[in-house]
């Protein structure tokens, strides 16, 4: 199989613009969005919906899914499909520009230089003033419209409760409490938007989505352990699926560059069935995505200090209580034997542990005898794995 073509196919499958037919792990939220929108459209009923959740949790993907269904519903019901205005509020320099942006999206032939206010937009969305079909407004990054009086936000939501309104409003933002915190008077306008929350992706969900994205490829491209590392790291940091996809594409870049530089032999242009993006590629890719002071500190340690920290990570992986320094030294000596490295002396080992403790990576108590001093890992085990997995020496040494 042609190597470059396969890598390109993998990158395409992992791109944000690729919308899978089935959206995993978000069926409850998407079903609610679809039901709300379909009911409003078929019943010619205005309404408002607030979709919230942290970045990369599937909100925009759900909107793409929704827009793809609108024409199908209209054909099945024998009605005109709604006009759709999608506005990302980060592109606005002033909150009041939202009215013009919506107006010109719904009226593409109108003069772009003409400034439009709330009253003109309200007329456009009224069945009594000429609207012949429903109008779907998708307002992304809605929290950028927050002002001192919240006038713009209130007026937008009011569009969906006005008499004879054709407006279906879907507001999207990260803040879960936007409607309660910034718009407490909505109920006085008989406006109570339904709220749908998109939670952060879990480790298992990220892993499942990545597998789904890659399932169309004829040859496996990622080692499962590499995908697992990506899922674990991203879920621990944010649960942002966009970062997981970006990390995978970055790992592919590293894998591609490494294979192209290895050899100029003809077979190097073909992807072998035992070639994968490995854990070290993913670790290096994740290091580019997540900049952590702890991880950078670990990566800057001298090699034997990293070996001691690796030994501590393995020792404390399944135990929450502390352990004497002598037991950590025993773990370290076993590590040296496995890797063929010459161990440092007991005195040097104690000094290394003190250095690591001074960096805030290891807890180190006091005792009459050095070997009895209590030790405890002070950083997350996954941070140690993440920091050192990209180093070939440690690849098979971290549990």
From TrEMBL:
One of its GO terms (molecular function) is DNA replication origin binding. Residues 45-194 form the AAA+ ATPase domain. Keywords: Cell cycle, Cell division, DNA replication, Nucleus. GO terms for biological process: cell division; DNA replication initiation; mitotic DNA replication checkpoint signaling. Residues 309-388 form the Cdc6 C-terminal domain. It comes from the Eukaryota. GO terms for cellular component: nucleus. Its main location: nucleus. InterPro entries: AAA+_ATPase (IPR003593), AAA_22 (IPR049945), Cdc6/18 (IPR016314), Cdc6_C (IPR015163), Cdc6_ORC1-like_ATPase_lid (IPR054425), ORC1/CDC6 (IPR050311), P-loop_NTPase (IPR027417), WH-like_DNA-bd_sf (IPR036388). It is found in: Nucleus. Coiled coil: none annotated. It holds the Pfam family Cdc6-ORC-like_ATPase_lid. Belongs to the CDC6/cdc18 family. This is Cell division control protein. It comes from Selaginella moellendorffii.
């Amino acid at each position: 199989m042609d190597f470059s073509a396969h890598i390109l196919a993998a990158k395409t499958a992992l791109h944000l613009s690729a919308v899978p037919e089935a959206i995993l792990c978000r069926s409850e939220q998407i079903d609610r969005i679809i039901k709300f929108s379909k009911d409003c459209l078929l019943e010619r009923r205005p309404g408002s919906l607030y979709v919230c959740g942290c970045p990369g949790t599937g909100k925009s993907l759900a909107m793409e899914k929704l827009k793809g269904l609108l024409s199908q519903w209209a054909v099945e019901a024998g009605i005109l499909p709604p006009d759709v205005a999608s506005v990302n509020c980060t592109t606005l320099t002033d909150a009041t520009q939202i009215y013009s942006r919506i107006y010109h999206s719904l009226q593409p032939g109108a003069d772009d230089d003409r400034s439009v206010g709330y009253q003109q937009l309200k007329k456009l969305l009224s069945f009594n003033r000429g609207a012949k079909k429903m109008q779907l407004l998708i307002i992304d990054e809605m929290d950028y419209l927050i002002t001192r009086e919240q006038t713009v936000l209130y007026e937008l939501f009011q569009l969906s409760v006005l008499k004879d309104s054709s407006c279906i409003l879907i507001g999207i933002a990260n803040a879960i409490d936007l409607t309660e915190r910034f718009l407490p008077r909505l109920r006085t306008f008989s406006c109570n938007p339904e709220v749908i929350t998109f939670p952060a992706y879990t480790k298992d969900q990220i892993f499942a989505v990545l597998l789904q994205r890659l399932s169309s490829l004829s040859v496996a491209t990622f080692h499962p352990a590499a995908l697992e590392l990506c899922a674990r790291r991203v879920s621990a940091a944010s649960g942002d699926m966009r970062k997981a996809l970006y990390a995978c594409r970055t790992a592919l870049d590293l894998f591609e560059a490494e294979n192209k530089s290895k050899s100029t032999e003809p077979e190097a242009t073909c992807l072998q069935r035992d070639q994968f993006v490995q854990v070290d590629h993913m670790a290096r890719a994740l290091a580019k995505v997540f900049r952590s002071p702890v991880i950078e500190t670990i990566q800057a340690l001298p090699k034997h200090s990293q070996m001691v920290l690796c030994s501590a990570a393995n020792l404390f992986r399944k135990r929450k209580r502390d352990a004497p320094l002598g037991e950590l030294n025993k773990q370290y000596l076993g590590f040296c034997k496995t890797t063929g490295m010459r161990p440092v002396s007991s005195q040097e080992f104690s000094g290394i542990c003190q250095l690591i403790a001074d960096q805030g990576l290891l807890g180190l108590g006091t005792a009459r005898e050095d070997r009895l001093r209590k030790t405890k890992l002070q950083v997350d085990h996954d941070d140690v794995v993440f920091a050192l997995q990209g180093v070939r020496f440690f690849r098979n040494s971290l549990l």
